[in-house]
Amino acid sequence: MNNHNQKKTSLWSKDFTLTSLSNLLLFFSFHMLTPTLPVFIMSMNGDELDAGLMLGVFVVAALFTRPFAGRALDRMGRRKILLTGLLAFIISLISLTWALSVGIVLLLRAVQGIGWGITTTAYGTIVSDLIEPSRRAEGIGYYGISNTIGLATAPLFGIWVMQQFGFAPLFLTATAMVMINVGLAWLINLPSLPADQGSTEKKKDDNLIERKALFPALLAMFMTIVHGGILSSLTLFGLEVGIVNVGWFFLVNAVFIVLARPVAGKIFDQKGHEYILIPGGISLGLGLLLLSYATNVMTLTGAAIFYGLGFGSIQPTLQAWTINRVSPHRRGAAIGTYFSAFDLGLGTGAVLLGLIAKWTSYAVIYRISIVFMVIYGLVYGLYLINEKKQAISKNNIQP
Fold it and tell me: pLDDT tens for residues 345-377?
């Protein structure tokens, strides 16, 4: 896929900017609760298992919602489904202010997972509609920065609101942010459903899972298995090796993800996915290797640089590649399939590598994680070899 001869088009349209802002508000609202909801659970006499279940029910609800959300986006239109997801998210957030037991919190967290699965799939599909194909990966790279900003800044803000004002104002602030998105949803001029959305086409190709999205989704899953293991264990790793402030990893990692995204996107749009997915995988693997030997902030920072460059390059490339492989009327299903694999990897990584850590150490599980990146490289390498063989065979057949 080589688009460098195509005319350069404007990326930062009003609709693209509003969609990115909406996504930022959603991620900020969500990540305000990442460090604070476990404290809320403990304040209701919950325990560590309840805190773990809170994440589990959320991920499972989002995972199973995404394929249905993707198909609904393709069949019923983008705005209607987006508003449905935002409403579910708002109801679950504001209801936390009246939650009286851990069981109710877990139920609301499941509803929140459903809302999250719908809204993030909707925004991913909408932004794919809005970006010109010749700049798709670059656009997705810039759009994804809103995720990273939310992840990097919202937890600290959430902790500050909780400590200064309490839980009810925390939940109301998070709710207000998502309510702004309801207004923004009406301001975004969404493209109408593609012309090939006819009844015959729908009947012929109306599966929950988009088959053409499965290969990029598989590669994403190998990457997020690793990511889930790191997110769930880094603080404990710091205690194990004597690094007091592992927060530096998250900060530096976020900075280099932001730097990598648009650059990787441009390279993908101009040259193709192999120019990003191979060096990106190597960079991520090096980050893991350095992390496994980290005993001070300097090594930890080096690991974060390589890891951030790898993750920030691979993620938008795989997402853009997913969209490029499917017809416009199957974009919702493709994004749903891709993000389901993304979630599945995060959940699997957190559980699997957590179990292995019980028998070894966190340093060892980071080295074991490199195996998943090796598998990623082998699977992708075999794909490239097969593609070249098919191209040669096709050229030989032609007169």
Answer: 888 887 788 788 778 888 898 999 999 999 999
3-class DSSP state for residue 164? helix
Residue 295: both structure tokens together: 């005993």
Report the topology of domain 209-399: Growth Hormone; Chain: A; (1.20.1250)
Residue 90, token pair as written in the block: 């708002």
The structural domains of the chain, with segments of one domain joined by +, span 11-189, 209-399
pTM over 0.90: no
Dihedral sign for Cα atoms in the order 158, 162, 164, 170: positive
- Nearest-5° Cα angle at 375, 369 to 376: 95
Q: Are 174 and 99 in contact (CB under 8 A)?
A: no
Residues with Cβ within 8 Å of residue 280, at least 6 apart in sequence: 264, 309, 310, 311, 313, 314, 317
Find, among 174, 191, 132, 110, the residue nearest to 323 by Cα: 132
Q: What is the DSSP letter of 35?
A: T
CATH number given to 11-189: 1.20.1250.20
Structure tokens at 147: 């995720």
